[in-house]
Amino acid sequence: MKKMRSGIRAFQQAVDHHIRYSVAKRWDEASAHDRYKAVALAVRDRIIDGMLATQDRYQSADVKRLYYLSMEFLMGRALGNNLYNLGVFDEVSEALTDMGVDLEEIRDSEIDAALGNGGLGRLAACFLDSLAMLGMPGFGYGINYEFGIFKQVIDNGYQKEKPDRWHNKDNPWLIERPDEACIVPVYGKLERCQDAGGSETSIWGDWKILVGVPHDMPVVGYGGGTVNYLRLFSARSSDEFDMQIFNEGDYFRAVEQKISSETISKVLYPSDSVDRGKELRLVQEYFLVACSIRDIMRRYLSSHETLDVFPDKVAIQLNDTHPALAVPELMRTLVDENDVPWDRAWEMTEAVLGYTNHTLLPEALEKWPVPLLEHVLPRHLELIYEINQRFLDRVSVRWPGDGKRLQRMSIIEEGDPKHVRMAHLSIIGSHSVNGVAKLHSELVKSELVPDFYAMWPEKFNNKTNGVTQRRWLLKSNPLLSSLISETIGDAWITDADQLAALAQYAEDRGFHKRFLDIKRANKERLAKVILDTTRVEVNPGSLFDVQVKRIHEYKRQLLNVLQVIHGFLSLVEDGRSPKVPKTYIFSGKAAPGYFMAKLIIKLICSVGEVVNNHARAKDHMKVVLIPDYRVSLAEKIIPAADVSEQISTAGMEASGTGNMKLAMNGAVTIGTLDGANVEILEEVGPENIYIFGLNVDQVREMRRSGTYDPRHYYEAVPGLKRVLESLVSGLFSPRDPELFRPIYDALLNHGDYYLHLADFQPYLEAQTRASEDYADPSVWAKKAILNVARTGRFSSDRTIREYADQIWGLRPALSQNAATVTKRRRAV
Amino acid sequence: MEIEQEKRGDVLVVRVLDNRLDAHCADEFREEMAGYVANGDRSIVLNLSRVDFVDSSGLGAIVALFKMMGQGSRLAVCGTKDAVTRLFKLTRMNKVFDMFDTERQAVHAFAQS
After folding, report:
1. Which residues of A are known to be catalytic?
2. B18 at A interface, C-beta within 8 A
């Protein structure tokens, strides 16, 4: 207790110091954001010691390091997470209460670090948390975007995008490292020359220079024993480069040049709008890759004389194809800058790189036009051609005379213009290719790139995604976390398999009550958020049915809306009340250029407008779309969910991670056999999940045979016609009855590519089963508790262990104390 | 721009005394070097030990010199600082002409060949 008091005093002194000398204000006159900043800096002081100690430990043990290259890191807020992981949450809370402020208010002043679109970026953030918890030398490498994903505002039911400023220039969690800046040449042309021996060679000339300045965001592992970091690069113009223009007396051109260079890290591209051929995006991807590889090489060479053991000390994981230029960049670095012979350089590149595939959607597979690549990165294109030629030679030896196969497998796609297939480049240049759920990994082999699987079956593997239980349960659901720890101990925080011990309480009525009381409290908290953000009052006693994710046709928010309309019409026209009152909660952003997704948002809001104000419906159902879905909002929605909607068309969702977070918080899934839902089913058992609809084979067969006729379902499924006609009757858009015609047409007249109508009836049945079960609290509580107990496998700690063992060859490098504690825990 | 030259046997040693070889002085450098080539110098050692920064125009001027000298000529660069060496390697110019740590090594190598 005495120790805690002195800790509190020391912390208060640190906050006093920072409010005065870092923020230059007095505590009493400081704004909420100023106070947040002072508190964050005081916490950061503690973290930095750990960070330096961790780096010393890695350095002295000459450990192998993993670099996770990702264009997106959806980190969310850091303060609360860091306090939990340092184990000082209560201490800091008390210290601040003494100072007259509430920690919650301070935490609310922090803006999410929203440097990502969705699952891919959040996965990267969960992985960093797990790496640090496990004491593994793993570092994230990304871009320090000035603007993260846009802020979503709902205006009259329409999504409007506003810029997201997350203070990347004065963020207390970012430590600038100008001394480790690196130069990155881009553009220019290749000039043919003869080398000293008289052979033909090329020189890369006329380039422009960018400067990448690293900013480190510390990542505290649970317990504080390991502090890794996420290194984010900002693009700056080279002073030297500007000088030449200044010297020519053209001040304005110099300034323009500076602005144009700094544009590289200005903004994160929203997904689904990474337009083909967007030069800035290509430069961004190269900027990340070039800065990362220079930095990795610099660190390695600072403690090794030669490159002999480079693959023993470095692993690089490519989070999707966005950093695929790492293949030619690493080759260029080894061959051009370090005189490594081609074959040896290739061996090293393959040994170091691993590639994670995240999508089966053909339109989401990156391809860059050859003329653009040649314009931006002439030397890299030359290397890609060389890599491709050598690769195709191997294919020809294996399958002589198979020209079609060569065409299918080539990195270069023929056409006008030709394109560079980044997935092929990634597969060829990596020793490991993994999907992110069992089903997805199988489809990668059988559907996406079967020729590559035939060539290198040993490269392909699965690493089912996971989420960190520390952010998604411990931090976001403190009431449930306390109940779990009180009941089975707190080992689950670092070993999620321990959650299985909760299963023995699944039929315990006393435990049911406590569990349901907590769910109710979380729902009350969310109801307040809903009221504040949408002005809609919802009933915390109703079933909270939650679909939170990016808005995309394949994720089928539309299927959900159709069943909501069906329920509404059954109620108001047929007088059939739902079994239990329900609140349908949607949240998610649509890509700014994605017309259909934005129209679906408008439909959700319009249906909500009608349903929520209908005299007979409003006590039975409510529909809300909570604006601006982001990590900190997800932390409030997920603990309050009763039902988790995971209803994508089978075969289209790679894994999903929202499904895992929701199940871990006791929401029961209604889902298709898609992505990781299949594995959630395996874990929780068929009686604790509501699976419905077409499976992958049926979807494939339906599409292949061309037998799918949405009109058949329109006519045959009771109530469906009425639902669809309501879209164009003006019921939900009285001022413009044609508003939702594009949705109606997509479903009925343009083939319903995502098979909404085929799955409609089974979906309704699943909804009915869930409602019936929910009506009996003890039946429901048992299912919900078993979901918590049986989702330990979906911890990102498990995922990272698998990556570390099977792909990276990475080992924990724990401090002496931490190692002793771990050993003792294992012995117990 | 400031340049110093010294003849060592057949070898012309050219020392760039400025700390930058960039767009600002690249043309002047090119003209100066063209003069040496016109005088018949066919073995040139370019000492860049004082140069902190070379941009693409500076590198372009060196490539132009190399091309000007033509077949049978010899060009070596010596004394480059780390950042400049990195740029030479990055742009593959180290493949086209020899690079030496010191002027002495470069001249010695020419004498041996």
Report:
1. 358, 549-550, 555, 657, 661
2. no
Strands A200-205 and A189-194: antiparallel
By mean pLDDT, which of A68-82, A121-135, B10-24 is the weakest? B10-24
pLDDT of amino acid B93? 86
Q: CA separation (Å) from A516 to A244, A265, A469, A477, A781? A: 69, 46, 20, 13, 7
- Neighbouring CB atoms inside 10 A of A298's CB total 11
**Residues carrying CATH 3.40.50.2000, chain A:** 62-77+112-465+811-821, 507-697+754-785
Closest CA to B59 of B35, B89, B15, B101: B89
* Complete domains list, chain B, with CATH: 3-112 (3.30.750.24)
d(CA A363, CA A606): 30
Kindly report, residue by residue over A318-376, the tens digit of the pLDDT: 999 999 999 999 999 999 999 999 999 999 999 999 999 999 887 788 999 999 999 99
* Distances A51 to A44, A300, B80 between C-alpha atoms, Å: 10, 19, 36
Q: From 3.40.50.300, 1.20.1070.10, 3.10.310.20, 3.40.50.2000, which CATH number describes the A62-77+112-465+811-821 domain?
A: 3.40.50.2000
CATH architecture of the domain formed by A507-697+754-785: 3-Layer(aba) Sandwich (3.40)
Write out chain B residues lying below 8 Å of A201, CB-based: 92, 95-96
Residues of chain B with C-beta less than 8 angstroms from the C-beta of A243: 22, 24
Asked if A370 and A410 touch (Cβ cutoff 8 Å), the reply is no
Q: What is the pLDDT of residues A35-46, one digit of tens each?
A: 999 999 999 999
Q: If you write DSSP's letter for every residue of A736-757 in order, what string do you get? A: -TTTTHHHHHHHHTS--TT-HH
B28 in contact with A at a CB cutoff of 8 Å? no
The pLDDT value recorded for residue A825 is 47
Tokens, residue A580: 């239990």
Tens digit of each residue's pLDDT (9 = 90 or more) over B28-62: 999 999 999 998 888 999 999 999 988 888 988 99
Round to whole Å and give the CA distance between A242 and A245: 5
ipTM above 0.90, yes or no: no
Q: Three-state DSSP class for A820? A: helix
Q: Which two tokens stand for residue A467?
A: 């989420």
Omega before residue A734 within 30° of 0, cis: no
Q: How far apart are CA A680 and CA A675, in angstroms?
A: 9
Give how far the C-alpha of residue B89 lies from the chain's centroid of Cα atoms, to the nearest Å.
15
Report which secondary-structure segment, H or E, holds A189: strand A189-194
Residue A524's pLDDT band, with cuts at 50, 70 and 90, is very high
Query: Looking at the complex, does the CB of residue B59 fall below 8 Å from at least one CB of chain A?
Result: yes
Contacts of B60 in chain A (CB under 8 A): 205-206
